[in-house]
Amino acid sequence: MAAVGRWRAGMALLALLALGFGRVRAEQTEEHLKREHSLSKPYQGVGSASSGLWDLLGNAMVMTQFIRLTPDVQSKQGAVWNRVPCYLRDWEMQVHFKIHGQGKKNLNGDGFAIWYTKDRMQPGPVFGSKDNFLGLGVFVDTYPNEEKQQERVFPYISAMVNNGSLTYDHDRDGRPTELGGCTAMVRNLPHDTFLVIRYVKRRLTVLIDIDGKHEWRDCIDVPGVHLPRGYYFGTSSVTGDLSDNHDIISLKLYQLTVERTPEEEKRDREVFLPVVDNLKLPGMEAPLEPMSGLALFLIVFFSLVALVFAIVIGIIVYNKWQEQSRKHFY
């Protein structure tokens, strides 16, 4: 009986410790589902002109169990976009999706993208949405366009932050501008497939759950990512000569409440253009800090002094030349 009593006491202690640990984690990061930025069954009002929070574009269709961005048909493109801009500081987007079709390996395409961008509802060549975008794109690319590369296995997930000056390189599968990525075998699976995009304290992470084990696996982890607030969430897809069904089952956005130190508050100040720290990509350099009033005054002052000095030297040289000319004449 004493042993049983000690066992019960030990189990109670473990339960208390677990509860305390859970509370600590809850205090560090709290999650709140934001329905105005989320999309789930029964998809009420999606695509409605007068009501609803989401718009359909192109060939996207609302079905009973999913929203089909593109059917398994050539040369189709579709998208669904949130109507409400997101002003959250820290957030997590959970994407439940399914990619399937009749095509065999490397005879399918092209994939889909999840967006957090300034512009919405603009079709284009980047997985069905516009190029030179402002914001974040996470791409689930199912077809390799770059024939010579051998080290990358498709399907492949990658991320890109754009300040509007970069072009997505289709011929190289976006390699010149990607922040990171991972292989993800997501086609024609019998179980659910999930992807999570998390943006916390200027750190962008992407995790995947595609093995049917209900376990998250790391894919992308990039610190120093600065995204403006007030952009729109959306997802789009495109097919070309090859095709697939690209289905979105749900998009769930969670507001994350995290504590920040004063140093982190200063570091995470508001930005107006997307930028990534210490990333050497063409056109992605951080904007220069504006000059102070004193620095501007000193530059103008010394410029004027240099100009006056040059004028004085010029006058002296000119007078000497005239004097020499007169002597030579006489």
TrEMBL record:
Membrane topology type: Single-pass type I membrane protein; Single-pass membrane protein
GO-annotated molecular function: D-mannose binding; metal ion binding
Keywords: Disulfide bond, Glycoprotein, Golgi apparatus, Lectin, Membrane, Metal-binding, Signal, Transmembrane, Transmembrane helix
TM helices/strands, residue ranges: 294-318
GO biological process: endoplasmic reticulum to Golgi vesicle-mediated transport
Protein localization: Endomembrane system; Golgi apparatus membrane
A Pfam match: Lectin_leg-like
Domain of life assignment: Eukaryota
Main location: membrane
InterPro entries given in the database record: ConA-like_dom_sf, Intracellular_Lectin-GPT, Lectin_leg, VIP36_lectin
Regions annotated as coiled coil: none
Signal peptide bounds: 1-26
Domain L-type lectin-like: 31-256
One GO CC term, this protein: endoplasmic reticulum-Golgi intermediate compartment
PANTHER family for this protein: VESICULAR MANNOSE-BINDING LECTIN, VIP36-LIKE PROTEIN
Name used for this protein in its record: VIP36-like protein isoform X2
Organism: Lepidothrix coronata (blue-crowned manakin)
Gene giving rise to this polypeptide: LMAN2L
